Each structure stands twice: as structure tokens, then as C-alpha cells.
């Protein structure tokens, strides 16, 4: 049975490809899950329209991420923490703390997008990467100072 893929599927093909699959696989899995259309001339036109729309939407998402990165360029977060001997922190500054402080300044960031390898446990100035989109990263200055 010939079908047109609506999404990239591992070991099968990419969006818009016309492929031949078993009829049961198409009827019972691909078509009900909206992963494919039957290969007809009308559906070929439909998939071209969907491709254009998906491309436009992806471009808009990248542009929005770039705008947000430009706004975040000047973002500076300051954490006043208690310290012990040799300026070691009681606790640490984590991604959740960074997200919370950014929210206070009007920036909504998903905590999973903050690229922090391990919690900050020393005083100082850090530059933290925030992945806004797979193609766009923003840098945020984090100041950790004594209380």
C-alpha cells in the first residue's frame, strides 16, 4: 500500500516521502495515529501545504527565540547567600533558583532549558547558558554574593 508520511519516522522515512508499506501497518497504525495519508493526488497537495506551514512555523519559533535571547542578553541575576568558612555556601544555587529569580524579573524559563552542569557552590560571577530553541542559546549572568 502506498502512503505519504506526515512525520519523520525512524527506519521508515521522512516527512512527505511516498513509501510502500504493508496494508495492515498502514490501516492499523500509521493512518489512525495521523502519521500518514493514503497516496493520492489530493493528499500530495495537502502534504505540500503542511510542509510549507511547518517550515513557516519553525521559522517563527526561531525568530521568537532570537528575540527572547536578545532581551535576555542584559539579564543579570543576583543571589545573596549565607557562607561559612573559606566562603563556601550553605546549600547551593540550582536551576530552580535561577528560574525563580528570572521569573521575578519577568522572564519565563523552563528549568530543563537551563544548562547548568552542577549546582553553584562558590561565590563569584557565572555565565549560564539557556537553550531557548535547538538553534538559539541565551547567556545569563549569575552573581553569587555574600549576604
What's the structural blueprint in terms of helices and strands?
Elements lengths: L1 E4 L12 E3 L2 H8 L5 E3 L2 H32 L3 E6 L6 E6 L1 H10 L9 E2 L4 E3 L1 E10 L2 E11 L1
Parallel strand pairs: 4-9
Antiparallel strand pairs: 1-2, 1-3, 5-7, 6-8, 8-9
Description:
This protein has 147 residues and is of the alpha+beta class. It folds into two domains: 2-68, Ribosomal Protein L9, domain 1 (3-Layer(aba) Sandwich); 75-146, Ribosomal Protein L9, domain 2 (Roll), CATH 3.10.430.100. 34% of the residues lie in helices and 33% in strands. It has helices at residues 23-30, 41-72, 95-104, and strands at residues 2-5, 18-20, 36-38, 76-81, 88-93, 114-115, 120-122, 124-133, 136-146. The strands form three sheets. It has a four-stranded mixed sheet. Strand 8 and strand 9 (136-146) form a beta hairpin. The longest helix is centred in the middle third of the chain and has 32 residues, at 41-72. The radius of gyration is 24 Å and the shape is elongated. The N and C termini lie far apart (69 Å). 16% of the residues are buried. The mean pLDDT is 91.
Keywords:
single chain; three-stranded antiparallel β-sheet; elongated; Ribosomal Protein L9, domain 2; Ribosomal Protein L9, domain 1; alpha+beta; four-stranded mixed β-sheet; 34% helix; 147 residues
CATH topological fold name of the largest domain: Ribosomal Protein L9, domain 2
The shape is elongated
By secondary-structure content and strand pairing, the structural class works out as alpha+beta
What order do the strands of the largest sheet run in, or round the barrel if closed? Answer: 4-9-8-6
User: What is the number of E strands?
Assistant: 9
- Supply Rg: 24 Å
Helix content: 25-40%
Instruction: Look at the structure and name the CATH superfamily of the largest domain.
Output: Ribosomal protein L9, C-terminal domain
Order of helices and strands: EEHEHEEHEEEE
Count of domain modules: 2
Cα-to-Cα separation, first versus last residue: 69 Å
> What value does the average pLDDT take?
91
Strand content: 25-35%
Amino acid at each position: 500500500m502506498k502512503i505519504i508520511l506526515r512525520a519523520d519516522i525512524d527506519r521508515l522515512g521522512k516527512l512527505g516521502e511516498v513509501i510502500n508499506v504493508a496494508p495492515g501497518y498502514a490501516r492499523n497504525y500509521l493512518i489512525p495515529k495521523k502519521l500518514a495519508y493514503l497516496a493520492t493526488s489530493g493528499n500530495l497537495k495537502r502534504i505540500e501545504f503542511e510542509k510549507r506551514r511547518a517550515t513557516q512555523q519553525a521559522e517563527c519559533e526561531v525568530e521568537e527565540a532570537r528575540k527572547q535571547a536578545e532581551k535576555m542578553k542584559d539579564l543579570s541575576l543576583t543571589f545573596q547567600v549565607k557562607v561559612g568558612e573559606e566562603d563556601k555556601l550553605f546549600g547551593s544555587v540550582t536551576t530552580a533558583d535561577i528560574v525563580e529569580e528570572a521569573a521575578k524579573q519577568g522572564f519565563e524559563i523552563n528549568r530543563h532549558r537551563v544548562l547548568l552542569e552542577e549546582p553553584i557552590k562558590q561565590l563569584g560571577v557565572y555565565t549560564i547558558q539557556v537553550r531557548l530553541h535547538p538553534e538559539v542559546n541565551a547567556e545569563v549572568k549569575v552573581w553569587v554574593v555574600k549576604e
